[in-house]
Write a structure and sequence with these properties.
By secondary structure, the protein is an alpha/beta fold. It is 38% helix and 14% strand. Strand 2, helix 2 and strand 3 form a beta-alpha-beta unit. The N and C termini lie far apart (87 Å).
Length: 304
């Protein structure tokens, strides 16, 4: 029987866990890794269609299994890692993707339950599954790819708690990358911008048609990303092609993170610039650089 040629990705036979694999980005990542030859454990909450995703991978001649459990619970996270190792014999790749995307409100209006739900879904799931995966990843010199968010790069009004939890993911990934480099483990994150999932569709979530439209206005590429585009970046960072990349936060966002900075509805009085304050102090010389224009004579005297 002819053996399949090893691809540049080097994922053939590797064992990957994808958390939040029942839907959206995680589902796409599970399919992508399996299509590149990885054996995939699809993990998700009880009731998530992780079994269906695993079945779909197997129908395409891939290798997959599934695990159901709340991964914000340390015991379930440990059980998930054990399930992968017991089923496939090793662990090479952890895609820590489970989480929630909330179109949240201002801090004052966020209730205790919503805050705790977001912390559990985005922070607890990240920490517990990564901590529990490390002993197995040390044996294979494996890697971790987390799904952060561009919302975690910079605080934004109306997105404070979600952005805060993703800020944790981004910083944790960078710190862990430095800690684990000595063990040959790479740790990176993909930071999706607005991505084409149920949550960003009017009719399939709480957002209105108008919100759906304005969502893309600030994106240089003027559209949402697809789950496959995010999965491609995840697969790249998990692959041998990224062998010298660790601690990276790779924004996959149509240019959003490098272009933002606009503010809505600012009162005119706040827009006044400190006009003239610098006059008489510094000016550009024709040859470049700065030159004192009208120096304070007392300051000048003090220099001599
Ligand atoms: N969709 C976007 O626009 C967007 C943007 C930036 C970041 N993200 C991030 O991408 C990741 C995937 O989100 P998505 O858009 O595919 O949404 P999604 O809701 O389709 O997928 C998230 C999955 O995680 C699972 N999950 C949540 N809590 C869990 C837990 N405690 N244990 C196990 N599984 C759990 C959910 O059941 C769900 O299947 C999330 O971390 C999200 O914050 C999404």
């Amino acid at each position: 029987m002819a053996t399949r040629k090893k691809s540049e990705f080097g994922l053939e036979g590797k064992v990957a866990i994808v958390t939040g694999a029942g839907t959206g980005i995680g589902e796409a990542a599970a399919h992508k890794l399996a299509s590149l030859g990885a054996r995939v454990l699809c993990a998700g909450l009880p009731g998530d269609p992780v079994d269906e995703v695993a079945q779909a991978i197997k129908r395409r001649r891939g290798k997959a299994d599934f695990f159901e459990g709340d991964l914000s619970d340390p015991f379930q996270a440990k059980a998930c890692i054990a399930h992968a190792v017991n089923t496939f014999g090793r662990l090479d790749i952890l895609v820590s993707n489970a989480g929630v995307t909330l179109c949240a409100d201002a801090a004052e209006t966020i209730g205790d339950d919503e805050f705790l739900r977001t912390m559990h879904a985005n922070v607890f799931t990240t920490f517990f599954i990564m901590r529990e995966a490390l002993p197995a990843l040390k044996k294979t010199h494996g890697c971790i790819v987390a799904t952060g968010s561009v919302a975690g790069l910079k605080g934004q009004p109306g997105d404070v708690v979600y952005g805060g939890t993703k800020g944790f993911v981004n910083a944790f990934v960078q710190g862990l990358a430095v800690e684990q480099a000595v063990h040959g483990i790479r740790v990176n994150a993909v930071l999706p911008g607005v991505t084409d999932t149920a949550l960003t569709h009017a009719g399939r979530s709480a957002i209105t048609k108008n919100e759906e439209k304005t969502m893309t206005e600030d994106i240089p590429m003027q559209r949402r990303g697809t789950v496959e585009e995010i999965a491609n970046a995840i697969a790249f960072l998990a692959s041998d092609l990224a062998s010298y990349i660790t601690g990276a936060l790779l924004a996959v966002d149509g240019g959003y993170a490098v272009s933002w900075g606009g503010v809505d509805e600012v009162p005119a009085r706040l827009k006044r610039q400190p006009k003239g304050e610098l006059e008489g102090v510094l000016k550009f010389t024709r040859h470049g650089g700065f030159k004192k224009n009208n120096p304070d004579p007392r300051a000048e005297r003090g220099r001599h």
